[in-house]
Design a protein that fits this description.
single chain, 102 residues, mainly alpha, 6 helices
């Protein structure tokens, strides 16, 4: 039963861990370093920005929908965005879409 719970909530735990890590860094006064999204995270964000659904993006990239959602959630967390649309805006503002892939 515990394993089933963990699998269903893994994204929330990962997001919480990232937020916890960032909060500890702020408390300790560590300088913020620019967060680097992986190529795959940026690629998934690009398809999202183009209006593709998770299922279609998974087909295009030969991934499972769960993996695409995982990459989108990681990108959102790394960029400090409140939503995927916000993550797309931040990535575009930082020029991340023009540095890699397409």
């Amino acid at each position: 039963m515990w394993q089933t719970f963990l699998k269903s909530e893994v994204r929330d735990f990962q997001h919480l861990a990232g937020e916890f890590h960032n909060a500890i860094g702020r408390i300790q006064g560590r300088p913020r370093h620019p967060t680097v999204c992986s190529d795959r995270e940026i690629e998934c964000l690009k398809w999202y920005a183009r209006g593709e659904k998770v299922k279609r993006t998974a087909e295009i990239l030969s991934l499972s929908p769960r993996t695409v959602r995982f990459h989108l959630d990681l990108a959102r967390a790394k960029l400090g965005a409140k939503s995927l649309a916000h993550a797309v805006a931040i990535a575009a503002e930082r020029g991340l879409f023009f540095q890699r892939l397409f």
